[in-house]
Amino acid sequence: MKSAVIVGIFGQDGQFLCSHLEKNGYVVTGIGKNEVYSSDESWKKLIDINKKGDVAFLIKKLQPDEIYYLAAFNHSSEDIKEEISQLLTSSYLVNVLNYINFLESIVEYSKTTRIFYAASSHIYGDTKEHIQDESTKFSPRSIYAITKLDGLLLSRYFRSKHLIHSSVGILYNHESHLRHPNFVSRKIVKAAVEIKKGLRDELILGDLNARMDWGYTGDYVGAMYQIVNHEKPDDYIIASGKMIKLVDFVKVVFKELEISWGKFVKEDKSLLKRKFSATYCGNPAKLTSVTGWKPTTDLDHLARIMVKKELERHK
Asked: Which pLDDT score is estimated for 82?
């Protein structure tokens, strides 16, 4: 029976990945900020990923087949700006320095363990390429993106220097009912359901014509699994390869609830705190060619899933 450690198990990706791995017969140990999870209840010790000793103890004790590093420090484009020093410190700690603890512990105590790092499409910054692939030039324009790129580069370094199986998924937007309400997909669905139930009378968004590459989290964790289980470690874009406008998602969500979106949705561009000219659309051809992975959930299906789960919250 295979074993896996998920760092950041209580987030959207972590919960979906845990379910995916357990369905495939894995024993899963999950690490959260102040919680742990064990599918067979064999692990109960809290792990502080800030401490190299804690991480080393975990790796040495469990000798896991796979580790998925999904922990990340990020904030929505509509969040209030933090002090730069605080943002830098938090981002580097979670996205880079704590990840090094896992890489070094694998080298020291469990060199056959495979590790996956969740990077982001934002490492491409204000790219002029309409569709990005693994050869697109990196040009991060935010602290989040800079630190995610550092995580990718560290994965490459440990892969070549120490010959460990360290792979990277460059993740494009992927949504589900587990998204925090601060993120626009969940914000739209939550507001639409509340409008349907007469609990509010409008939804205000920053840019209805914003274009993005959106997928379903349930599909994307399957890609993570296939990347880790491929013989050769590498970097892969995980994306749908299709662009949609935000207004198109709004339309399908409101249609699912049988209400007219135009009566309730307004635009206010002042809500956007981070503004980029680039549009992110990833080409997953390399991943498809190597593993056979393809996304299976289209926009209508994604909206249907999220609306159904949001309605269940109101029961």
From this structure: 56
